[in-house]
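TEACHING EXERCISE
Course module: macromolecular assemblies
Task: Read the component lines below, then compare them to the predicted structure of the full complex.
Student: A.B.
Group: 4
Components provided:
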Amino acid sequence: MSAGEAYITGVGQSEIGVKLTRHPLLLTVDAVREALNEAGLTIGQIDAVSTYPGRAAMMPGFSPVGADELIDALGIRATWHAGGMEISSQLGAVVAAAMAVRTGQARHVICFRTVYEAAALARPAEYPPLRRETAEGYSQWLTPFNAISAANWTAQYAMRHVKRYGLTREQLAQIALTDRAHAALNPRALVRKPLTLDEYLSARMISTPLCLYDCDRFTDASTVLIVSAGEALDEVTCAPVRIAAMAGTVERHSWDQAEWMACYPTGADLWKRTDYKPADVDTAQLYDGFSFQALAWLEALGFCEVGDGGRFIEGGQRIALDGELPLNTFGGQIGAGRLHGFGFAHEAVVQLRGKGGARQIPGAPRIAVCASGGGPLATALLLARD
Amino acid sequence: MGAPRVLPRLDSDNRFFWTSGADNKLRLMRCQECATFIHPPRPVCRKCLAENVAPEVVAGTGTVDTFTVNHQEWRPGLEVPYVIARVTLDGAPGVYLTTNIVGCGVDEVQIGDRVRVKFEQHGEVYLPVFEKVD
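Instructor-supplied answer key:
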């Protein structure tokens, strides 16, 4: 345990569902309580809060609870806090917290991501949907052409892999099949039923080459990670997990002007900041709001060459629980639910602590990589159980 | 497409781009010092930081960089399927336009297809969509 380092200590999660009626602040509190219990901390020892993207007044289901609100609701005396969308991606909130504890701004930071998109959609009177008459900001370059969803934008990256590198539907299917197989072993996962290749191949298309099962869906849940300073670890009862390296590089913050997805430079930059190598990684928890993003992350993080992602996951054995690189062992967002980035870091910590239960990977994993973001957004964290 | 398109809100930065099709020409913002194209248009060059920037006519032909066929009815009345594409423009390196490929079947578009701009007028807005050229 070293001073000057940042650790993830307690992790917690609420129930994961769709159209939940429990108040989103209380879902957040459920996850906070679980994280505090695991860490052996009390709320009085928390002195900072970090979240993504902060309370989204225009889209209350997307982010119904802000850092300010949690600080006030739980009586936290915060020496530092942050919540914003203009950051590398969802796990950028964890990067910010790590920098805060490493610079002495705080000792124990609650990092949280609460989503309430399914509930909000089901209760429009309480959560009025956003209606925009015109397109502005970056959406003006996409929406007028009915390139409305991130599914469309991501599909165009995936199509380049199909045409340039020969990515097949059977190969891409392995992300969803692996997610769903792992989700079946996760009691909290949103979808507990495994998916067959036949079901995948006969699913309706959303935006070619992405079909229904390549997409996550609106979910209600909260995930919490407590980031603690190395100097404060004597207050913690759980096995701390060190944040060994962090990266979040953006070359052009645009879904269509960037030559390529931000995960590629981010993955390369992660390895410049550590002596660990891709071969040292025991498990990868990689953003899969759309399946192709996880495949791109595998390439970006150097587990295979750019363009070889399809062949790397072919057949699925390599990324299964007992494979050489178990992937998204909690089910990813496609299986466990759209936890929006934080689920990947949560699961990396669970696996490194050996607390995965039926989905625990064999051996005693020491190194995990987790990543959030797609398109122009990317954050990668390398976590180590020292 | 059945449902009306959601149009861009015009402002001092983007008005020239979205109204450019009135004379059937495509224009992009360009640095007058170092000749870099600036898209989305902004009042400063992203390469040399010069503020001497101005819209310039570009060829209006290009190549499909990538595409997707959208099948999902994202809003009521949206007619599907349709082709969304990212197009590179001749003579304007580094600029991509997200657009629709029109005038052909959705299964007739491929990466590398040569395309030409065609403007779809909605009031003062002229959306640059593209058609395949043989």
